[in-house]
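Hey, weird one. I pasted the PRA1 family protein sequence into the form twice and got a warning about non-standard characters only the second time. First submission, copied straight from the form history:
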Amino acid sequence: MEVQVAPLRAWDDFFPGSDRFALPDLKDISKWNNRVVSNLLYYQTNYLMVAAGLISIVGFLSPLNMLIGGTVVVLVFLGFVWMSHNKDILRKMKKQYPTTFVLAIMLSSYFLISYLGDVMVFMFGITLPLLLMFVHASLRLRNIQNKLQNKMEGIGLKKTPMGFILDALEQQEDSINKLADYISKVKE
């Protein structure tokens, strides 16, 4: 399947006034997770642009440490994903507690980077963009177009880079399974 880059969303759609933002319902973690996943898919190109800007600034100020930090985070992420596919306990943790899984990756990366290089580069160049993405995805209310685009991604009509990352974190299987169940019920 060919990877498609999601379109860059207009700034007024990405970051409008406070009327399009609300605190998530902390009592309903699955609904909050659904909002985050939907927004990560829908605004992925905008997030990439913001992250690229921050990474570029930090990379310009400290290029070697940024390269080391980025390499460590990618290797730790790939290691955790590989281990979660081979160890049932990690697979269950990744599925049930995706935030804990990502925090474990970030903490492991932090300790390796503190051993190898500059921790502040890690904090501002890697962690800050991820934190900004998570906060925006948590607070941004979804719209109809957002939901429609995510359904297309979920049923496999298109595949984007963020879709691959979320698949590695096993955060899209529920949507696909729910849609498959719905289609099978409609056929009956």
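That's the output from the first submission. The warning seems to come from a hidden character in my clipboard, not from the data itself. The longest helix spans residues 63-86.
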